[in-house]
């Protein structure tokens, strides 16, 4: 297909006009079919399932059989297309990747700007506050418990010096 800039202006105009005519025609046909379908619904129902024919010969039954057969063929075709694509897509991707100049792509990235955005997105002061806050709390618990043990130790020494027993307290 020729590039759009190389297609003569008249040809583009005719093609665009044909597309618009087709779209308008489709709208008209759709509206007409809706009106006819509403009016003809009882007649179509009778034609779809004629009471004088056995059910196996009804147009509805025949259409359902064709649809089931068509569905089977479509699903088989879908499976075949999937197999072809499953084989072709990795090969195509490998061919594209082989042609890529990774160095050129990396050189187009503003790594400093990217790093600055990442750093700006990290709230380092909050992280430091949280981590030091928990460390400080742990240290204070340790100091308190050591102080309690030291107090008990000193109390024990004073009690022995003064001749007091622990049970008297």
Our count of helices gives 5
Secondary structure: helix percent: over 70%
| Residue windows where pLDDT falls under 50 for at least 5 positions | none
The rough form would be described as elongated
Question: Beta-strand percentage?
Answer: under 5%
- Main beta sheet strand tally, sense and closure: none
Structural class: mainly alpha
Order of helices and strands: HHHHH
Number of strands: 0
- Give the averaged pLDDT, no decimals: 81
Could you tell me how far the N terminus lies from the C terminus, measured between alpha carbons in angstroms? 104 Å
From the alpha carbons, calculate the radius of gyration and give it in angstroms.
Answer: 43 Å
How would you describe what is shown here?
It contains 5 helices and no strands. The chain is mainly α and 169 residues long. The radius of gyration is 43 Å and the shape is elongated. The model has no long low-confidence stretch (mean pLDDT 81).
In summary, what is this structure?
The chain is mostly helical. It is built from 5 helices and no strands.
Topology of this protein?
Blueprint: H1 9-48, H2 59-99, H3 102-108, H4 111-121, H5 124-162
Protein traits:
169 residues, mainly alpha, 5 helices, 82% helix, 0% strand, elongated
């Amino acid at each position: 297909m020729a590039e759009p800039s190389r297609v003569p202006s008249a040809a583009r105009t005719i093609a665009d006009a044909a597309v618009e005519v087709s779209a308008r025609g489709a709208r008209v046909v759709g509206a007409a079919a809706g009106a006819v379908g509403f009016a003809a619904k009882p007649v179509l129902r009778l034609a779809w399932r004629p009471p004088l024919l056995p059910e196996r010969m009804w147009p509805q039954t025949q259409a359902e059989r064709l649809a089931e057969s068509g569905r089977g063929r479509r699903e088989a075709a879908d499976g075949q297309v999937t197999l072809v694509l499953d084989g072709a897509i990795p090969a195509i991707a490998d061919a594209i990747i082989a042609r890529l100049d990774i160095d050129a792509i990396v050189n187009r990235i503003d790594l400093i700007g990217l790093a600055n955005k990442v750093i700006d997105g990290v709230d380092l002061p909050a992280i430091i506050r949280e981590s030091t806050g928990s460390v400080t709390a742990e240290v204070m618990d340790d100091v308190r418990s050591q102080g309690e043990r030291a107090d008990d130790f000193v109390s024990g020494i004073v009690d022995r010096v003064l001749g007091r027993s622990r049970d008297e307290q």
